[in-house]
Amino acid sequence: MTFDRIPKSENQYREEMLRQFEASGAIHYDLVELDKAKISDLDMGQVTEYFTRNHISFLEESEEERQRLMHHADILGQNNPPLEIT
Which of 1, 13, 26, 68 could form an SS bridge with 7, CB 3.0 to 4.6 Å? Predict the structure, then answer.
């Protein structure tokens, strides 16, 4: 038999809903896009390492593909300018 969590307050209810949505992969409530951040602000070594751990040869991909990968990994937001990796 299982018991559902019954929140005692509105805040606990909100936290439980966020936990369930995040657990299902539906949302990432802790991600916040930075308005003035630039791609050059990223540590590309860390980005490359992240993709290497996931068996993706990031630096061997085209610039367009790198940008797509970073968008899908939530590294870049929707408002980022075109990728400029040097």
Answer: 13
Exposure letters 38-56 (e unless 16+ CB within 10 A, then b):
ebeeeeeeebbeebeeeeb
CA distances from 18 to 22, 28, 38 (A): 6, 9, 29
Structural domain includes residue 5:
no
Written as one string, the DSSP assignment of 35-51 is: TT--GGGS-HHHHHHHH
Asked whether the CA dihedral 41, 73, 14, 7 is positive or negative, the reply is: negative
List the domain range (segments joined by +) for residue 42.
Answer: 10-72
14 φ/ψ angles, rounded to the nearest 5 degrees: -60, -45
Determine, yes or no, domain membership for 30: yes
Domain membership flag for residue 14: yes
Q: Domain count for the chain, please give it.
A: 1
Q: What is the pTM of this model?
A: 0.56
